[in-house]
Design brief:
Elements: E1 3-7, E2 13-17, H1 24-30, E3 50-53, H2 58-61, H3 66-73, E4 83-85, E5 98-101
Parallel strand pairs: 1-5
Antiparallel strand pairs: 1-2, 3-4, 3-5
Amino acid sequence: MPKVIFVALGGARRTIDAAVGDSVMATAVRNGVPGIVGECGGNLSCATCHVYVHEDFLPLVGSPADLEDDMLDLAVSDRRPTSRLACQITVTEALEGLTVECPEAQP
């Protein structure tokens, strides 16, 4: 199982085993990661799973598609070049050690 590292606002790190094929959001919600709400259940209709992807992993997760890009504009926290919605990142073996930072606030 690949590990995903969630970094809280204060810098605390939490490493979680993630199932291949699950979204990063589902992994976070199932494990009670603070700062990842996933209000819409991963249906790409909110931005409550907004995360900042560590730059080393950007080539592996890719850029947001058009609808995700639009949703990121609605996020409560500031958007960065590394912003993604965790519901749109599917866990793969290649993402071993994926590190994402939780933003300051989600709705």
